[in-house]
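Box 4.2: Ligand-aware structure prediction
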Amino acid sequence: MAYETIIVDVSDHICLIKLNRPDALNALNLELLKELVTALQDAQKNDKVRCIVITGSEKAFAAGADIKMMSEQNFVDVFLGDLFTEESDAIGRIRKPIIAAVSGYALGGGCELAMMCDFIIASETAKFGQPEINLGVVAGMGGTQRLTRLVGKAKAMDMNLTGRFMDAAEAERAGLVSRVVPTKKLMDETMSAAQKIAEKSLITSMVVKECVNRALETTLTEGLLFERRVFHSLFSTEDQKEGMNAFMEKREAQFRDK
Ligand code: CAA
């Protein structure tokens, strides 16, 4: 499919999606969000894809929801149209692992999109923020909810109330990003992480995603029971036999998603 606002490339079992509105620092308008959802759903259906990467440009992952688009709307428009609900829910329903490779600005909806991914690899120049308060609104795609779960109340309040930006080092200390790498190496490091994930059993990596996400939704007792039962159920797969036999035979496992 031909896209106007993103560039999609599938190779070596990885679907790489590059946000591509350079003139607007990849601001998320509805066209971009809808194209992104279509690309992610295609990647979910494509048997060749085992891991997904979302990235932007060196200057901006995404500088937020498109302010020009929103400035023309009133409460009735956004409430009745349920602005951003369908798109963010659809992104949350993608079951394959998604890595965000973030360089430059990840602000507002950009930070929220990165947090919808399963983990974030940041370049040294990455800047995260929820500056919606400067526009007279609050975050609308998870900036008060996912950020609080990821970095805790103190920093989430600070970011959302002051609108200040967090640099990559602080984001790593706070647990928002999994690692920080030199800007020139961002894509190599991210694609290498994606490649490692692509080599695992897709069944297992999709189960890991469900288990870790469950930790944010439920009590420890329920989460541990969910994890243990899923662990038990994986003993019914050929990939469990292959993984354990390969270890015993001192060779690399060849997973077949069965
Ligand atoms: N929406 C629309 N256009 C945007 C944009 C956005 N979020 N962010 C940047 N742009 C546009 C600018 O308008 C500018 O376009 P023109 O050249 O046509 O004027 C172009 O991108 C380059 O931006 P700047 O000239 O401002 O670049 P800069 O380097 O001086 O500053 C910046 C960069 C600090 C990121 C600044 O652009 C900025 O503050 N952007 C807005 C960030 C923001 O408030 N994001 C939150 C949006 S609301 C939201 O996301 C709601 C939600 O939770 C769902």
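In the box above, the bound molecule is acetoacetyl-coenzyme A. DSSP finds twelve helices and ten strands in the chain.
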